[in-house]
Structure formats: structure tokens, C-alpha cells
Amino acid sequence: MLAQAKISTFKIKKIIKCFCLDFNASKTALLLGLNRNTINHWYDVFRRAIYAHQYREFKMIMGEAELDESYFGARRIRGLKVKLKRGRGTRKQPVFGIMKRNGHVYTEIIPDCKKKTLQAVIKGRIDPKTVIYSDGWRGYDGLVDVGYDKHFRVNHGENEFSKGQGIHINGIENFWSFTKRRLAKFNGVKKNFDLHLKESEWRYGKKSDKLEKELWNILKFYY
Questions:
Q1: What angle do CA 97, 52, 123 make, to 5 degrees?
Q2: Cα–Cα distance measured from residue 151 to residue 105, given in angstroms and rounded to the nearest whole number
Q3: What is the pLDDT of residue 63?
Q4: How many Cα neighbours within 13 Å face the side chain of 190?
Q5: What is the pLDDT of residues 23-72, one digit of tens each?
Q6: In terms of Cα–Cα distance, which of 69, 64, 12, 22 is closest to 204?
Q7: pLDDT of 110-140, one tens digit each?
Q8: I want to staple 195 with a disulfide (CB 3.0 to 4.6 A). Which of 44, 47, 140, 189 is the partner?
Q9: Rounded distance, CA 110 to CA 145, Å?
Q10: Dihedral sign computed on CA atoms, order 211, 121, 108, 133
């Protein structure tokens, strides 16, 4: 695709730079003097390549991992007069997240946060020897019974956010905060939410110059 592109490599790299600075398509089109549809096209190319890259690069998580779920979506639904609840019990879209301490984040869109659902993801993505940290949600009950005998919890319901000795889930909670701030700039992202979620995984904790180099290499691999 890069070789057959209708615009020069120089311009593609300019678009990459704006993308990695997290400019929206309108701002990038204005800055570069390009058509908004052209920018939309390339942004979509970037996001799909990043999505594939995140899955390709994933390795079974070992060491220490933090677990948490979060909820995404509008604060209101058309025709519903009250605001949606926050957290568990909401009508928003649940997302499960796993953060490897001092490493990458893995996210997955899930239908619910029941124990069966969460355990299926955990068993497929986390090595049983891993030290796991979570909050007190009942969806995390029984992990010891399925082989995860190093499971430590904090009780957020009692305003407990750390027990000391590294028992906390601050890392994954910081990721949720980062992701929600990002998506708010794009009005919450109603379309291609899965692509934006994987993009946030990829972006988290990296500076724009590193993102530029990585994205160029990703594109060369896929296109």
C-alpha cells in the first residue's frame, strides 16, 4: 500500500507525525493542507495496522499482573432521562484490562464482568505462575481454585487502594484514566471503538518520537 500510495512518502510521514501527536483528522488536514478524507483514510490504515500489531506481538503474561475492568460509553442514552450509572451495573460497554507490571497492557471488550467471563480471559492470557493483583470484585473470586495461587486483592469498597508491599492496581487504573482522557477528545468514539482501544494500548507510556518510529516499522511490515 505504501508503494502504491497516491501521496508521497514525505507526506505520509507528516501524517504519521500528526497522528502520533494525537491530533484529530480535522487538525491534521488543516496543518498539512490535505483533504480531510485523505487524512481519515490514512488514520484508518494506521489504526488497523496497530490493531493487528498488538495482537501479533502479544505474549502470555508472566511475572506480575494487575487486573481491572472499566466501562466506556456516553453518559446518557437518547430517550433515557437519567444519566447512566457509573461502574458495575451500568449499560456502558465493559472492557477487561490486564497490565503486566513494567510492561504492556492487554485489553479485551467483554459482554459482562461475571466470574466465568473474566476467568476465560485470564486463563487464556496469563500464566498460572503469575502474581496477580485485583480489587475485591466477586468476578475475581476463585482464581486460586483454577491454578492462580498468588492472588492479592485491595478492597476499594472500603477506600483501600494499597496494602503496601506492591499490593495495588494503580498501573491499570492509570491506563483507564489515560484512555478515557484520550477518547474524550474524540467525543467518546462511537465508531471502531475496538481500534481506538488497541491504539490506546499501543500509545500508553510512549513519547511521540518513539511512536513515530514504531508506526513506520509497523506499516512497512503490514504494507
A1: 40
A2: 19
A3: 96
A4: 4
A5: 999 999 999 999 999 999 999 999 999 999 999 999 999 999 999 999 99
A6: 22
A7: 999 999 999 999 999 999 999 999 999 999 9
A8: 47
A9: 22
A10: negative
Say how far residue 124 (Cα) sits from the centre of its chain: 18
Query: How many Å apart are CA 128 and CA 187, to the nearest integer?
Result: 39
Those residues whose C-beta lies under 8 Å from the C-beta of residue 141, and which sit 6 or more positions away, are 115
Q: Which three cell numbers stand for residue 177?
A: 484514566
Among 106, 16, 53, CA closest to 218: 53
CB of 203 closer than 8 Å to CB of 195: no
- 3-state SS, residue 123: helix
* Enclosing H/E stretch for 42: helix 36-57
| Average pLDDT, rounded, for the chain | 89
Whether residue 19 is predicted with pLDDT greater than 90 in this model: the reply is yes
pTM exceeds cut of 0.85:
yes
Residue pointed to by grid coordinates 483514510: 41
The alpha carbons of the chain give a radius of gyration, in whole angstroms, of 19
Query: In Å, how far from its chain's centre is CA 195?
Result: 9
pLDDT, mean of residues 174-189: 89
Residue with cell 488497541: 198
- Helix axis angle for 36-57 and 9-20, nearest 10°, is 70
